[in-house]
Amino acid sequence: MAGASFRFYAELNDFLAPERRFHAFRHEFIDRATVKDMIESFGVPHTEVDLVLANGEPVDFSYVVADGDRISVYPMFEALDIATLTRVRPQPLRDPRFVLDTHLGRLAVYLRMMGFDTLYRNDYRDDELARISRQERRILLSRDRGLLKRGAVTHGYCVRETEVRRQLVEVLERFDLAGAARPFRLCLRCNTPLEPAAREQVAGRLPPRAAELYHEFLLCPGCGRVYWKGGHYRRMQRFIESIHPV
Fold it and tell me: How many CB atoms neighbour CB 129 within 10 A?
């Protein structure tokens, strides 16, 4: 039977069955298929892959795997310059904006807290998420490998962590975003940019104690939510400083 040797590198092994991790393994097949289809058949979303070598030569996702091929699959490179090779991923988006699947609502709030434009609804369908990601050039964050395997998704990432603060740190590190954070710029509820507001403008929406103690306010023109630098603000600020010291 025809077969090819596959070897996945670095964090791509997170998606493989334990017996296939960190070493070359043989994959037998009857019908020939593209390298993209074979890679995803092992559980690795194409959005996680940056470079594929077939017998030592760079190929794109349309390459059809042949009997005896040696396939090496690499994630995004952080230290090596591979500009002269055939990368299979599109160029990174200059303006990092996100759309999150329905299971990452708390992460959406934290990304907005850091100032990153983040779309989220708890009723998005998978086809909507893929369409928004492609049409609006947003990075799709999900823990659903099947969603990230959709051909319409060009920029995506499978979030590994399950605890929300660790998820945030993971995303910031994965996309090198710590230096781009602009905290307290967006509404945590609806993602709209906040605007300064006078106390008189928002007085009717404030708890009595907040109206008495605070003088600086931010107003969301989208949903009308009011923000001020109270205890919740200070707790968020301490959290931000703990993961990105200023």
Answer: 27
Average pLDDT of the chain, as a whole number: 90
Buried-state track 31-64, b at ≥16 Cβ within 10 A, e below 16:
eeeebbebbbebbbbbbbbbbbbbeeebbebebe
Residue type, 133: S
Helices in the chain by DSSP H: which ranges?
Answer: 35-41, 105-113, 126-135, 145-148, 164-174, 199-202, 208-213, 231-243
Q: Which two tokens stand for residue 7?
A: 């070897």
Q: Which helix (H) or strand (E) holds 73?
A: strand 70-74
Residues 118 and 97: beta-carbon distance below 8 Å = yes
Cα distance between residue 227 and residue 192, in whole Å: 13
91: its two tokens: 């160029």
Task: Phi first, then psi: give them for residue 218, nearest 5 degrees.
Answer: -120, 140
- For residue range 141-155, list pLDDT tens digits in order: 999 999 999 999 989
Closest CA to 75 of 153, 149, 4, 8: 8
What span, in angstroms and rounded, lies between the C-alpha atoms of 6 and 29? Answer: 13
What is the spatial distance between Cα 47 and Cα 69, in angstroms, rounded to a whole number?
23
> Are residues 107 and 168 in contact, defined by beta-carbon separation less than 8 angstroms?
yes
Sheet holding 70-74, edge to edge: 25-28, 3-8, 70-74, 51-54, 57-59
**What is the pTM assigned to this prediction?**
0.84
